[in-house]
Structure to design on (657 residues):
């Protein structure tokens, strides 16, 4: 008997047996269905977090350093950072003048504010103070209009560039260009709109922003803002060299005595990546544990029902053995039956999670992503669960003595 | 050499601290083409003998050559292959697979022997035609009468062209008319040269055969010809025949 014949015959037997016990088969598979649902949901969640993270992190640029008062990921006591002096616009300008290895340098500052136009009002808007160089450093593109010129910045003109979300909200039927909006208590003319950016890690809408000249930020929003300085290197490979130069120049500008620690921090997106890796790893581990647990429960159910099936069909096993079925044939028959059960469970689970994933993606801010490899893994895991759980019952069937088996009712 | 050659065949069962001697050293030859009935009361060892003849069980001692092969010491898997190729079983309770149709039931031994799908379809169909069920190929056992079911079982027993057809109380679950049909079928198969062994406790069933072996207390008590067809076979037993004990 060839293996393909064996599998084909076994699959037919399995199908007939499962169909003859529809209710029992369905109930048994529920445990595995839940297990596989957790597999797919976990995979989908990790996939979605990864995708959102990659998208968000790419907006920060791999070749950009962020000089700020505080490190992004602080593991020391807050008090060691608290008394550091702010980074001023003058220091930013000085850094820009002295750096030789950087392609672009831009101070920036941000905060929250309220935007008004024609009796419409948006509060909690992300307000960014940028320079003419920020466009390339932040990796933004302009949808309509223009970005700031150097003279907009130097002369602190009251002009602004809107995020796409705000532009659509305030100007659904007209061009925003040339319109005057009110940010907190000052008037600004809209000169451009940024291409949509999406949300950062699925939480924070980056299109709900308005960008104004960094020089106006100080005048209109905050008397003593704490600037951060973005420094763009020629390429990501040049970053270490740029870091060294920035450190030396910043220490000189901020008059840090030799031997004293830096009173500023040089941040890179890789701290996010490192943090994310650790975070993602933890999620994965927890997910693996939960998944393993639910699959174990499901697998025990399968094992139980396979024992019942083997006992019920002792006579059938006896007949098959009398007609020449070998141990291997019987073993494969019951393994395939168990695997068919769990494969069915896997398909059912995918059929449930696929639309669920689409719904989550559509109705929540969480980016859930189903992919073919998740489906493949889910189905593979379900088949494996069936084979593992069905092995001992199948072995019991295969080892039956034909005389005793034939005598069963 | 005889088709079946059994020497001093014994089978013991260990039940807790007791040892049951179901078969105590049987010697027997059966030639190709014979139609033999094995008779005996329950507990006589006839079922044990049938299981050994059918390679469903292995003896505790003695030798059994079937069609030139020593099957007494074979492994379970080798025995499965022997059963598949050399033996066709017909059981009292038919033992068909309830969820499969007649054709698939008859195909089963061919599936296990590894025959291709088209060939086995053809052979299974032929076998069913041979037992007169050409119009019942796709009926399931519960859609067939008892006699028809037993004929499906006979077709299944014949489909691999086995050396022996081994029938265990083949008429036990049938009324006398359909039982007669099955016995006629056996007679027909015997006349075509098939070797048939029927295990029964009914005298008139045994009388259809050509030779009756009477088993009692794990030994062959008598080996007699029914005169239906002259049997040239004698028991080359090293032991003298044992007379049946009288009364309880």
């Amino acid at each position: 008997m060839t293996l393909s014949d064996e599998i084909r015959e076994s699959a037919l037997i399995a199908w007939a047996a499962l169909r003859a016990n529809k209710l029992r088969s369905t109930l048994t598979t529920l445990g595995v269905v839940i297990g596989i649902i957790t597999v797919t949901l976990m995979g989908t969640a990790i996939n979605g977090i990864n995708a959102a993270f990659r998208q968000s992190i790419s907006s920060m640029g791999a070749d950009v350093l962020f000089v700020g008062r505080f490190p992004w990921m602080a593991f020391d006591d807050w008090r060691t950072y608290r008394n550091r002096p702010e980074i001023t616009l003058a220091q930013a300008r000085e850094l820009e003048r002295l750096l030789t290895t950087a392609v672009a340098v831009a101070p920036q500052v941000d905060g929250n504010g309220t935007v008004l136009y024609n009796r419409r009002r948006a509060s909690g808007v992300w307000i960014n103070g940028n320079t003419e160089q920020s466009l390339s450093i932040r990796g933004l593109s302009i949808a309509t209009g223009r970005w700031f010129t150097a003279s907009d910045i130097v002369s602190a003109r009251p002009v602004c560039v809107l995020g796409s979300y705000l532009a659509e909200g305030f100007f659904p039927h007209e061009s925003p260009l040339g319109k005057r909006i009110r940010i907190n208590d000052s008037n600004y003319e809209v000169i451009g709109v940024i291409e949509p950016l999406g949300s950062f890690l699925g939480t924070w809408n980056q299109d709900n922003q308005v960008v104004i000249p960094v020089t106006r930020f100080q005048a209109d929003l905050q008397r003593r803002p704490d600037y951060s300085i973005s420094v763009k290197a020629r390429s990501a490979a040049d970053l270490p060299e740029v870091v060294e130069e920035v450190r030396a120049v910043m220490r000189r500008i901020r008059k840090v005595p030799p031997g004293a620690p830096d009173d500023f921090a040089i941040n890179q997106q890789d701290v996010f990546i490192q943090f994310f890796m650790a975070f993602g790893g933890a999620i994965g581990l927890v997910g693996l544990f939960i998944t393993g647990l639910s699959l174990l429960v499901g697998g025990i159910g399968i094992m139980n029902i396979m024992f019942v099936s083997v006992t019920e069909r002792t006579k059938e096993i006896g007949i098959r053995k009398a007609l020449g079925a070998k141990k291997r044939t019987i073993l494969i028959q019951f393994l395939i039956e168990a695997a068919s059960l769990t494969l069915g469970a896997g398909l059912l689970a995918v059929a449930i999670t696929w639309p669920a994933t689409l719904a989550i993606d559509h109705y929540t801010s969480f980016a859930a992503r189903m992919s073919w490899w998740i489906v493949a893994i889910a189905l593979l895991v379900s088949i494996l669960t069936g084979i593992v759980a069905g092995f001992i019952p199948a072995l019991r069937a295969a080892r039956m003595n034909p005389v005793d088996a034939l005598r069963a009712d | 050499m005889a088709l079946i050659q059994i020497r001093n065949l014994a089978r013991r069962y260990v039940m807790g601290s007791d040892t049951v001697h179901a078969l105590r050293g049987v010697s027997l030859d059966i030639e190709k083409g014979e139609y033999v009935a094995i008779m005996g009361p329950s507990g006589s060892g006839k079922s044990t003998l049938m299981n050994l003849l059918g390679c469903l069980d292995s003896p505790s001692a003695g030798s059994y050559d079937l069609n030139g092969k020593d099957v007494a010491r074979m492994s379970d898997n080798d025995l499965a292959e022997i059963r598949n190729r050399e033996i066709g079983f017909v059981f009292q309770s038919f033992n068909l697979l309830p969820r499969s149709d007649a054709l698939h039931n008859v195909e089963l031994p061919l599936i296990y022997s590894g025959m291709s799908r088209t060939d086995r379809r053809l052979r299974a169909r032929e076998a069913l035609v041979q037992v007169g069920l050409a119009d019942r190929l796709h009926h399931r056992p519960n859609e067939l009468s008892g006699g028809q079911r037993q004929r499906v079982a006979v077709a299944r027993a014949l489909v691999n062209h086995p050396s022996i057809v081994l029938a265990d109380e083949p008429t036990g679950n049938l009324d006398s008319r359909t039982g007669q049909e099955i016995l006629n079928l056996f007679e027909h198969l015997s006349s075509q040269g098939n070797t048939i062994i029927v295990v029964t406790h009914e005298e008139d069933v045994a009388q259809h055969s050509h030779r009756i072996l009477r088993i009692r207390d794990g030994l062959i008590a008598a080996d007699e010809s029914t005169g239906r067809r002259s049997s040239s076979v004698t028991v080359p037993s090293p032991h003298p025949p044992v007379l049946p004990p009288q009364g309880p």
Chain A has 14 helices and twelve strands. Chain A has a mean pLDDT of 86. Residues 104 and 136 of chain A are 8 Å apart (CA to CA).
